[in-house]
Design goal:
five-stranded antiparallel sheet; four-stranded antiparallel sheet; elongated; mainly beta; 246 residues
């Protein structure tokens, strides 16, 4: 079995990953047997190009261009792009430690964001100028280790951050180096924890420019307030109800 997985539709094709005698590579189809073909043997021969085993990995797209993580056997796992042809399938980055396998590649103002653990900020690829650079948005390992810990809304970036003075709170950045800042104190007790089990805020999503998030908590809390933070306003105000957590 070739185990096709990780399907992603662009404007002109459906891409997926499959295992054949060429290893795990990127394929595409437009819905017919004849159109279902290998995009490129990225890691030549039986070597794996897009992943090492059957797993869920993220891809993203802008128009008819797909962006994904791949290994050519020389440069490790880097950011790649394709429009469906061998010639258009090219490597974009050359990060020393490669691209993190759990990266989700958010699109921010026309730029593809990606990360690894070599630096403390997101990397970005700008298609308009065909350039990879380090962005001004901070990155922490728990963004990929846990769900709902970071959210881009247009050019604004909200994330769960913590320090030893305020504990875990909602933080915000606008892509300017050293401009990241805590939004406001929502948990009026010291909820700092040095370990990975810290009860980080969960960022549930956004409605327009309002970001919804829960207060940081411990496993023993039974009620969790939900906050709405207006990115264009001055503060975040909790509603009058608290959601019971089973």
């Amino acid at each position: 079995a070739s185990l096709p997985c990780n399907f992603h539709a662009t404007t002109n094709a459906l891409y997926f990953m499959a295992a054949t005698d060429l290893g795990w590579e990127l394929w595409k189809t437009t819905g017919t047997e004849e159109s279902t073909v290998l995009v490129k043997d990225i890691n030549p021969g039986a070597n794996n190009g897009v992943m090492s085993y059957y797993s869920d990995v993220a891809t993203t797209s802008l128009g008819d261009t797909l962006y994904f993580r791949a290994n050519d056997g020389v440069n490790g796992y880097q950011l790649w792009r394709t429009t469906g042809t061998d010639a258009s399938t090219v490597r974009l980055s050359e990060l020393p430690d490669g691209v993190d396998p759990y990266c989700t590649y958010p699109i921010v103002e026309g730029k593809v964001m990606f990360n690894n653990y070599a630096v403390s900020h997101w990397w970005q690829y700008e298609p308009a100028i065909d350039t990879v650079s380090e962005s001004g948005y901070p990155f922490f390992t728990f963004f990929n280790s846990y769900t709902n810990k970071a959210l881009f809304n247009d050019g604004s970036f909200c994330y769960a951050g913590k320090d030893t003075l305020y504990g875990s709170e909602l933080w915000r950045a606008e892509g300017i180096l050293d401009d990241e800042h805590r939004v406001q104190e929502t948990h009026l007790v010291d909820n700092w924890s040095p370990g990975s089990i810290q009860g980080f805020n969960s960022i549930l999503g956004s409605v327009g420019r309002t970001v919804l998030f829960t207060q940081a908590r411990t496993a023993y809390d039974t009620r969790v307030p939900v906050f709405g933070y207006d990115l264009d306003g001055e503060s975040c105000v909790p509603p009058n109800v608290a959601i019971a957590v089973p």
